[in-house]
C-alpha cells in the first residue's frame, strides 16, 4: 500500500523500540512499516506489526522499504545492528521527535535519534548512531562522537565532549568544557566536574571512579 510517506523498519521490539515507534507515530512524516526483533515475543508493538526476525530483512528491502532504524539501547549492539541493516540495503535516517528542540547550527549524524523534550543547543555536533533520550540537554558547542548515549534527563553544559560509545546515565550533569572518553560510563545522577578517561566508570557527587586503579 502506498502511504505517501517513506517506509521505515524498526529493529528492536524492546523498550527503546517502543520509544522509537512513538517518535515515528508522533512525527507524521514516516510510515512505520513494521518491527523486526531477534526473538519476537508479540505480533504487534504500539499497533505496528512485528514482522519476524532479521532473516526477513532481505525480502523487506526488496519489497521497497528503504529505511530502517536500530532501536537498541546497548551502544555496541546498536552499532553492530546498524552495520547489518546497511548490509541489507537500508538507509539509516536521523530521527527527531517533533517535541525536541534543535538550536541553530546543530548537526546530527545518520542513524541518530533525538527523543521527546530533548534539547540540542546551537552549534552542537552529534555524530552517527547517537541516542539522545527523553528530556536530555546538549548545550551549545557540545560534541558527541559516534554511538554515544545520553539517558533521560542527562545534562551536558556548554562545550562538553563525549567520546564514541560513552554512556551518560539518567540525570547526570557534566560541567562545561569537560571531556568524557570513549566507552566511559557516567552513573545515574552523577555530577561530573573533571575529565573522565576512556573506558572508566564514574558515579556520585562529585563523580569518582567506581573501581579506582
Summarize the model shown:
The protein is α/β, with parallel strands linked by helices and 213 residues long. The protein has helices spanning 15-27, 57-62, 75-87, and strands at 7-11, 31-36, 44-45, 48-49, 67-70, 95-96, 101-102, 107-108, 113-114, 119-120, 125-126, 131-132, 137-138, 143-144, 149-150, 155-156, 161-162, 167-168, 173-174, 179-180, 185-186, 191-192, 201-203, 208-209. The chain has an eight-stranded mixed beta sheet with strand order 6-9-12-15-18-21-23-24, covered by helices on one side.
Distance, first to last CA? 59 Å
Can you tell me the overall shape?
globular
**Helical element count?**
3
Could you spell the SSE succession in H and E letters? EHEEEHEHEEEEEEEEEEEEEEEEEEE
Radius of gyration: 17 Å
What is the overall pLDDT average? Answer: 96
Largest sheet properties: 8 strands, mixed
Strand order of the largest sheet: 6-9-12-15-18-21-23-24
* Poorly predicted runs of 5 or more residues: none
- The percentage helix is 10-25%
Number of strands: 24
Secondary-structure-based class equals: alpha/beta
Strand content: 25-35%
Amino acid at each position: 500500500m502506498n502511504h505517501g510517506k517513506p517506509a521505515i523498519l524498526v529493529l528492536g521490539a524492546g523498550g527503546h523500540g517502543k520509544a522509537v515507534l512513538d517518535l515515528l507515530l508522533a512525527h507524521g512524516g514516516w510510515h512505520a512499516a513494521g518491527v523486526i526483533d531477534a526473538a519476537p515475543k508479540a505480533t504487534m508493538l504500539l499497533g505496528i506489526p512485528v514482522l519476524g526476525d532479521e532473516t526477513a530483512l532481505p525480502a523487506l528491502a526488496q519489497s521497497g522499504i528503504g529505511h530502517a532504524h536500530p532501536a537498541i539501547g546497548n551502544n555496541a549492539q546498536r552499532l553492530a545492528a546498524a552495520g547489518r541493516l546497511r548490509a541489507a540495503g537500508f538507509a539509516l535516517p536521523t530521527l527527531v521527535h517533533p517535541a525536541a528542540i534543535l538550536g541553530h547550527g546543530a548537526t546530527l549524524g545518520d542513524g541518530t535519534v533525538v527523543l521527546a523534550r530533548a534539547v540540542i543547543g546551537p552549534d552542537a555536533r552529534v555524530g552517527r548512531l547517537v541516542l539522545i533520550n527523553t528530556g536530555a540537554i546538549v548545550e551549545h558547542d557540545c560534541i558527541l562522537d559516534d554511538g554515544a548515549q545520553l539517558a533521560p534527563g542527562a545534562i551536558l553544559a556548554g562545550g562538553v565532549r563525549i567520546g564514541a560509545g560513552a554512556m551518560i546515565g539518567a540525570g547526570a550533569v557534566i560541567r562545561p568544557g569537560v571531556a568524557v572518553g570513549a566507552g566511559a560510563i557516567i552513573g545515574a545522577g552523577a555530577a561530573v566536574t573533571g575529565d573522565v578517561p576512556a573506558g572508566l566508570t564514574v558515579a556520585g557527587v562529585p563523580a569518582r571512579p567506581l573501581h579506582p586503579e
